Amino acid sequence: MNQYQAAGTNAQLKLFALLAFQGVPTAEGDDLVAALEAGAVAGAQCEVVELDGMAAVSRGAVFADGWDAGVMAVSEALVGIADRGWERRGGRSSGVAELAVHIADVRERERAGLERLGAFVRKTVLPRTYPHTIERRRVLEALGEADRLCNARTIEYSAGDVILCTREAGHYDPLGEDSSGWHKCNLHTWIDDRPYNQPHKAA
Q1: What pTM does this model have?
Q2: What is the DSSP letter of 58?
Q3: Fewer CB within 10 Å: C terminus or N terminus of the chain?
Q4: In angstroms, rounded to a whole number, what is the distance separating the alpha carbons of residues 31 and 118?
Q5: Which of 79, 89, 86, 77 has the alpha carbon at shortest distance from 30?
Q6: With contact defined as beta carbons under 8 Å apart, do 152 and 162 qualify?
Q7: How far apart are the first and last CA of the chain?
């Protein structure tokens, strides 16, 4: 059950964040979450009620009576939980505020972690990649710096792979005769005038 509780808390955090971003008032956000929670409990209560009278006949009448009494007790408890959750709607603003603080703290820690990771990749991984290779392009994509590269692409039919150019955006001159204007990636070079190529466009 712990995984479901954690998932539920994370869903609440995201829901409150999305509602706040859309300008939904805090009290209205409380109402929406309370309605979702009460509805979920009500759905569980409906499933429990259906177990009434479902005890195995072979276990005898005493067992069946205890079974039905247990079903009734669980059903009533779920009704109480749904009622209490519904009655709290609009009154959990302090909880929403705490969630907002928690969201800000989590985002700050994530941002700091991403900055450290980016610095490590830029200092240690990027220098070990070779120019005009897909490996280097992938590292730049991970760093969010691939927008400076050409986005022309071609297809290697022998393997069915799509190959992206790894040169800088704006490098290609379709009217030039110099081979340095060709698109490059690993050992592949190509020009735009092939039906299976996507021509170069500035990023």
Answers
A1: 0.45
A2: G
A3: N
A4: 40
A5: 89
A6: no
A7: 47
